[in-house]
């Protein structure tokens, strides 16, 4: 069974129903359409990708 991919909010915050997810917090998109749109807009990224980008900023 494949591990579930976690996404992290990169920019601002995301409101999902009555829940607000702030920058730096883990976000679980409700479906692939929303996930793809937020990835394209640069609002979220895969959690492991964020860790790699931060390591390169040193």
TrEMBL record:
MF term (GO), any: hydrolase activity, acting on carbon-nitrogen (but not peptide) bonds
Alphabetical list of InterPro entries matching this protein: Metal-dep_hydrolase_composite
Source taxon at top rank: Bacteria
Name of this chain's protein: Uncharacterized protein
UniProt lineage: Bacteria, Pseudomonadati, Pseudomonadota, Gammaproteobacteria, Pseudomonadales
